[in-house]
Amino acid sequence: xxxxxxxxxxxxxxxxxxxxxxxxxxxxxxxxxxxxxxxxxxxxxxxxxxxxxxxxxxxxxxxxxxxxxxxxxxxxxxxxxxxxxxxxxxxxxxxxxxxxxxxxxxxxxxxxxxxxxxxxxxxxxxxxx
Length: 129
Known about the structure:
Elements: E1 2-4, H1 10-16, E2 21-24, E3 27-33, H2 46-63, E4 71-79, H3 81-95, E5 102-108, E6 118-125
Parallel strand pairs: 4-5
Antiparallel strand pairs: 1-2, 2-3, 3-6, 4-6
Helix pairs in contact: 2-3
């Protein structure tokens, strides 16, 4: 098992003691990704927050030599799921193309980052297996 880390993400990993991406047995396992800015805040505009989430997701996959097309499965955890699901789907559909990964969307009461509306966990194929 290999933990992938770059300088840009090391602050969050150091604070919360986790790895953004772990390479194991032909898979890439991605921890929960949010639309958090580098200062730890999130944009109040849901669409911008969701765009930032996919920017981070793309960066974490790239650190492992993969891309969004490598995704096998995503699970999203939503605060106020019904209120913002349509906006999330619009943004998601800009980034994830056919063949789509499996997807489960789950409503939750809160996330670790204040004001975050969604957190995404993912499993991807490891291009280096």
